[in-house]
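User: Study the chain.
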Amino acid sequence: MFGISTILFKRKKPILGTIILTDKCNLTCKHCAVNNVSCVIYPYENIKKEMLLLYQQGIRILFFCGGETFLWEDKGKNLRDLVIEAKSMGFLIVNIVTNGTFKLDLPEADLILLSLDGTRKNHNDIRGNTYDKILDNISNAAFDNICLYMAINKINIKDIEEVCEVAKEQKNVRAVSFNFHTPYPDTESLCLSQEEKQSCCNRIEQLIKKGYPIFNLKSAFRYIVNNSFKTPCYQCVVMENGKQFICGRCVEVEGLCESCGYFFAAEYAMVFDGNIKVILDMLKTYLKYV
């Protein structure tokens, strides 16, 4: 099975790759520190080279991220063309990350990770007046490959249950995936305390037990709350404009790894460290929602 040797021998070989298509975005969200820094749309030839490089490294799970991914187009190609090309190249899973304000017509993607950051009021406070448009786009999506993506922070900490209700009610949504806010420079005030993180994980675990579609591994929660997982996660890499980062671009920000709020980073770190409980939890969850 793909990746099994990495787990068995605890190798640092990457298996999951992310390509940043652009940092251009139509939103200026309160918690985001990476949008519209350069507003450059990276050329198709560069993106294709990065895909080939990641594939040659043995990576078979690919994410396209931004900025806003649906803003990417170059040489007559758009995001759909990239997803189709990645699939034909041999990537087993191809996911995209979006803010959900564009038409969601991308059935070729395995998952569309779409940001919904709380109730209408709090989401709009964080992301601007976009909540109703996003819900409309979800309802009219071409396929049921959407996974909601919520970054929990000081503003929306009470909204976990409401977002889970949306995931449960919307026919085109498979699940919801949570992260904690990672305190990038100038966003530190949104970061949760350890006690708040524990409370959130307790609530999420109860929702999992009640059958809500949640794409997180409860077996990894204590490592996430305590930031006791190994960082950076060497099995995940990010490419942006020809530069490769281990785990994520934030790895270069001093002290940020120790405050990492990305659930997937803890989950993958525990899987590739050979934690049997987390491995089994991941297999069960991924088979259910991917």
